[in-house]
Amino acid sequence: MSEVGGLQMLVRASGDMLRFPLGYAHWPRTSSFRFRSYTWSRERSAVCDCAPQRTRIGVADGRCVSVPNVPGAPGPLPSLGLNPRNSGSCRQPALRLPEGGARECGQRPHECKDCGKSFRRLSDLITHRRIHSGERPYECKECRKFFSQWSNLTRHRRIHSGERPYECKECGKAFTQWSGLTIHRRIHSGERPYECKDCGKAFLRASNHRTHRRMHSGERPYECKECGKAFIQASNLRTHKKIHSGERPYECKDCGKAFHRQSHLTAHRRIHSGERPYECKECGKSFTQVSSFTTHRRIHSGERPYECKECGKSFTQWSGLTIHKRIHSGERPFECKECGKAFLRATILRTHIRIHSGERPYECKECGKSFTQQSNLATHRRIHSGERPYECKECGKAFLRASNLRTHSRIHSGERPYECKECGKTFNQLAHLTTHRRIHSGERLYK
Length: 447
Known about the structure:
Layout: E1 6-11, E2 18-19, E3 37-41, E4 46-47, E5 55-60, E6 63-67, E7 88-93, E8 95-96, E9 103-104, E10 110-111, E11 118-119, H1 122-133, E12 138-139, E13 146-147, H2 150-161, E14 166-167, E15 174-175, H3 178-189, E16 194-195, E17 202-203, H4 206-217, E18 222-223, E19 230-231, H5 234-245, E20 250-251, E21 258-259, H6 262-273, E22 278-279, E23 286-287, H7 290-301, E24 306-307, E25 314-315, H8 318-329, E26 334-335, E27 342-343, H9 346-357, E28 362-363, E29 370-371, H10 374-385, E30 390-391, E31 398-399, H11 402-413, E32 418-419, E33 426-427, H12 430-441
GO molecular function: DNA binding; DNA-binding transcription factor activity, RNA polymerase II-specific; zinc ion binding
Keywords: DNA-binding, Metal-binding, Nucleus, Repeat, Transcription, Transcription regulation, Zinc, Zinc-finger
Main location: nucleus
């Protein structure tokens, strides 16, 4: 390599010291480049578009490498006519132009052939491709969980070690990641920097904002290859795949019940501990999950942000709208293998299966009576406690269940939403309509 035609840059993993064989042996430390040696030709140098006060000396891994002025640095480099400077990167990708040999910043030259998403670095594209291929090459030796990125495995290990190096000065809560602390601080400051232009809803995280926007656009980019079902988030697809594989890696040590998600196990454990950390300031009701708490608050605010385009009915949860749409489409995707009966919801199927298995996992500690559903046990407990939380505003009568209050309210309003198609008679309860239909069909349930 001639002195005039080239510049040798050596970056060592230990110390990150830059050495140049042009009489400038020691340059200041930098963390921008590691583990590689690069050679830059004179024709590659150019003014950096991202920072005019810097001069580009080359390109490494698709990134523009530039150097800023440093007071007190040695004299000029004879080969390039540059002053010795602190080496650094503008962290922008670089793309060679047809003429002149210079490179431009701000490009995303690496495109995914599966979904069209583009990236600044080839390494980012390689990592992204694992979403489509399902490859997760990094395994945790503690719990056998796999990850698509080494950095995710490193963070995951802190769950086992208990290490939480990033602590909030406001409340003392500690986090495994700096980003987690940064987002947490917004809870104290009230900052929600990511706002939806369609509905005005604001978010703490950019990722939550991106996911939310798909609700407006209808985009569901993550599709299950087994059944064709599509999802807004990659994490939802990964969880869904466990339905086909039967994998339930998170097991409760108290009762042996297993779950697809760690978050579901965490919430389930509160059934055993009795912990209900999320309390409503309006009515004092407490919840085991923050999602349930958020949904509950909409009862007081009246907010129902998810509306059916077919009939205009609105819901407090996206999942409620998704299930409701199946009424219009007739879809019942969850079928019982024992009797062939199909259901709108997976939870109803799981409860139904207990009819065949005889399983009643929820037991009352007061009287020993057991139930197929947690909600039935919760309602039953009110018999012992005397609690009747649902009160009619018209007459003051109180009920164990919200559904009983809704039915009772129809006495005052006169509403009779269930109509017989045979004779036009209407009823305030579905059960009454079901019984009435037997008059026309001649069916006698009890002989």
